[in-house]
# Entry
Amino acid sequence: MALKATIYKAELSIADMDRNYYGTHTLTLARHPSETDERMMVRLLAFAIHADEALTFTKGMFDVDEPDLWRKDLTDAIQLWIEVGQPDDRRILKGAGRSDKVIVYCYNATSHIWWKQIANKVDRAKNVTVINLPSDATLALESMAKRSMQLQCTIQDGQIWLTDGEQTVLIDRETLKP
# Structure
C-alpha cells in the first residue's frame, strides 16, 4: 500500500521591501512521504521569496516533468521554474529550455560539492540561477514545521527573516550562479 502525502496548511504574510510586494497567502502544502520537513520548509521559503498570485506549488516530487514551484502566464507559458534541493543537470537544463528563468535553491551541507560536479554542465544556460541556503538556517526552518502554521516573512536588502511568533530565522542567501 502506497503512503499518501501529509497535508500542511500555512498562512504566510509577506513584506518584501526589495520588490515592494506585500500580501498574505493561505497555502496548502502536500509533503511527499519521502520529503523531509526541511525540504518542505525550503519550498515554502522559495514561495515567500518569489510570491505572486500566479506562483503555484506543483506535483514536483510526484511528477518528473514539473518543478517544485512555477509561475505561468495567461497563455500557460512557464515564466519561472523553481527547483529545491540538488537536482541533476538534465533536470535543470530541461527547466531552462521550457521556461524564461530557472532558480535552484540548494540547502544541504554538501551543496558546494554537488555544485562543483554540475557547474560546467549548467553554465551554458544563461537563464539559470543557483542559490545556496545555509544549513543552519534551513534546519531552524525545519523546527518551525507544523501541520498548521502562521508565518511572517520579511525581506529587505537581500536578507530574509521568517518567524512563527516563537522563533525567528535569518536567512542569508549565497549565489553560486548569478
Observations:
- The longest strand covers residues 6-16.
